Every structure is written in C-alpha cells, then in structure tokens.
Fold this protein.
Amino acid sequence: MKKLIFIAALILGVNQIIAQNSKIKVYFTKPVDNSISPTADGIYIPNMDDTVVSYINKANLTLDIAVYDNGSTKIVNAINSAYLRGVVVRYISTSLALNSALGSLNSGIQLLKRSSTDVMHNKFIIIDAGTAANSYLLTGSMNFTSGNIFDDPNNFIIIQDQALCQAYKTEFEEMWGSSTAYYNSANSKFGPQKTDNTQHIFNINGTNVEMYFSPSDGTTSKIDFALNTCNFSTQFAMFTFINNTLGDNIINLHNSGKDVKGIIENISYFGSEYAGFISNGIDVLSHENIPNSFHHKYGIVDALNSSSDPMVITGSHNWTNSAENDNDENTLIIHDPFIANQYYEEFMTRYNEMISSISEIESQKTITISPNPSNGQFKWKSKNKEVKLISISNSLGEIIPMETNSKDIILNNLTDGLYFLKFSDGKKDYFCKIIISK
C-alpha cells in the first residue's frame, strides 16, 4: 500500500498532495487569483468584520483583545454582547490611534491604553485561552478600521491551539499588569520594559510555528534567520520597510541568485530600504501613489519548493527599527507549504495587478511591442534610448531565461498565456504585457 501511495505521489506531484492544516485558517481582505498556485487557494473574505464577530461570539469564558485601532461598531457590539453574557473581557489599545468605535464600548469593560510616543501596535484577540477545545487566536496585519477591513490589502490568520493562546495571554498580562479582570498600571509593562518570558516554538497539528513579541524577543534576528534559509525565492509585502539588517539580507539574497520580489507602501519614509533595492536591481514595486494602503507585513520563503521548508513570516511587525525596538508587536513564522502557497497566491495577485497598472499608460507611450499577441517571437523598441529590457516573467512571477541585450526576442518554448516585461531607464521602471498564443 505504501508503495502505491508513493507511486501516486510521484504521478500527481508533491505539490498536489500537500494537505491544509485544519487548525490554521488564513484569509485575505482583497481578491486572490486562485490559478496561480496548484497547491493551495488563498481565501478572500469581503467582510472580514463578520468573521471577527463570529469568533467573538464563540467566547464562553474570556476575551483578551490587544488591537491598535478599532473603528468597527459591529465588532464593538459583539464585544459588548460577550461581556453581557458573562465573558471576562479585557482590552488593550494605544492612545495614539483614533479608535473611533471604542466610545461605544460598555463602560464595565476594562480598557487600558498605552500612553507614549511609541505604540501598542498589536492586532490580536485571544478567545478562551483556558480551554483546549475553544481556544482561538486571531491575528495578522488588520486593524479593525473600515479602511483596513474593506479597502486595504491585509492578511488575517486564525489558529486554534491552547498552548499558543496561553503564550499570547502571558504577553497580554505583562502589558495588562495583572492576571485578573482589572489592569494594574503600576505593574503594566510596554515596549522595552517587557521581558522575553514566553514559549516560542509550537507544533500545531503537525505544523511548526515560531512566535515572537517585540521588543523583548529580538524579532528582527528571527526574521533575518528565516530569510537566510531561502534556497530559491522570497517575496515580501510590507507597509513600511526601514531596517538595514533585513534590507541587507534581501540584497544579499538577490546577489546570490535567489528570486526576490517585494512590494512596499511607504517608500518615501526616511530610511526606507526601497531606494537601495532599486539601485541593486531588485524587483520591488512601490504602492505609494496607488489608492488605499498596502498594509501587509509578511514575508514568504521558498513557497514553490516543498522540500525547502516553505514558510511565512506575518503579524503586526513592519520590518522597521521602531517595530524592533519600541512598539509592542507580535510575529508568527509558520513552516507550512500549504500556507506559504496561500500567501504566495495573494502576493502574486497584488504584484500582477500592480505591474499591469503602474505606469502602464506611460509605458505604452514609451515602449512598443510587436506583434502582440505573439507566437513567441517579437520585437520591442523605445523612444527613450536609455531603456533596457530587464526581465520577462509569467503570471507565477517566475523569470523566463532570455537574452536581454537584444530587441529581437525569440521564446519559442513558452506556453500560451500572459507575460510581463519589465524595462528600466536606470531611473524609472516600465511594465508591459504580452500575450503568447500559438
């Protein structure tokens, strides 16, 4: 029987038989192109507030909430309902966020706000940490604001595991200053005052998960180590990227021949790694002048190579110095090929959308490709003499080997489909599309 299963695995391909972990569910706030990965489908939830409410409604005993910003009356109403049915509710936020919905929070619920120039930037909820059967952790990059829930690209992850919930509870109570329903300001610790006092390594239904809090746990070094395991490819989706250690690592991965792609929102922030990535030829896109905020904070390692420990790095932690040294943050590193492929689908969906839209009108004015559609042989020309062809990639983001010095392109072995051409004049990138149809 085992031999038959082994033969079946060879026939189907390893990626075809990777199973989803029933205890870990990943969701995204924007649509995902499920044709990108044969291994896993990224799941789009258009009304993520309903999902949050449905899990809050599961709480029987305790509800510990540490969320940077909350503008959802629907979610606050669910929290109030939990409190009124006898659930012990504890809530931590920050004084620097708007938190427009917290004005309707039941006055009986204890609310602690970090009051500092630095922020409690977590986005997590712990449900019934004291019970194995009903303990859930909800976390990710999503604040409970209208923009984050409905407009901005975000990821949200739900994990059913008591040990993980207990570790988050330990972190929560360090900030809370108490193990009771009432916070203790005298004992409360935020930011650099906290200590490294939680379990970090978990096995959740067969999936190895690492968990770190900032600033106490040296999270940047853990992200750096995870990136260093890359053998083939890495992608990063980041609201803000201002950390030289991680930036240098990304450049080193690119220089060593790894396939590196990234998307960053805040490229103009002082110290952003974006300019250094561009000058080193890294395939990174700016989301800065595109509507809505690209609010993700995740990295992916070797998603398409199941034997190379595929993993996802996600949470509230932007790859910045303030996230490392000052803010209260949480990070998960999930070693799972199915989940890595879910995130890869989401990343490539956003990437393909952007290279289809960024400067496309300007690219069409600057660069012409003919014939298009093509049978695999085509020419390109540009009004700008400085423009050079950098790469051609398919919808999976895989770079197609080719001779970039010629304007006559011959790619007879391509399968039919949509391909993306990246050009650059040394100062600006241009993107064009070509359809291969034989």
